[in-house]
Amino acid sequence: MAIGNCNIYSHGKREMTINEFKRWLKKLDADKDGRISREELADAVRVTGGWFARLKAKRGVRSVDSNGNGYIDESEFKNLVEFAEKHLGVRIFQF
Ligand SMILES: [Ca+2]
């Protein structure tokens, strides 16, 4: 999947505000359907952390998608923030 320059570290920082995080998520939305699928999230983990991180993160992605519909929606956003901090090594400021 061609998400090339969506690397979370491309601007050289590991801290972002919640708005920056949302903007970054939009770039992950490869098929532009307005939501992040489990696969799109796993791709993000792959470009930031490599293949081993991806394997490890598979379980994490499943826990983000708490209602199990295959997509991360607004109500699961909080899970996503926790996931990013845990698996992508970013610090997200809530305000
Ligand atoms: Ca879901």
UniProtKB/TrEMBL annotation:
EF-hand domain span: 16-51, 52-87
Pfam families cross-referenced by the UniProt entry: EF-hand_5 (PF13202)
GO terms of molecular function: calcium ion binding
SMART domains assigned to the protein according to its UniProt record, in alphabetical order: EFh
Annotated TM spans: none
Domain of life: Eukaryota
Ligase among keywords: no
Keywords from the named record: Calcium
Name of the protein described by the UniProt record: EF-hand domain-containing protein
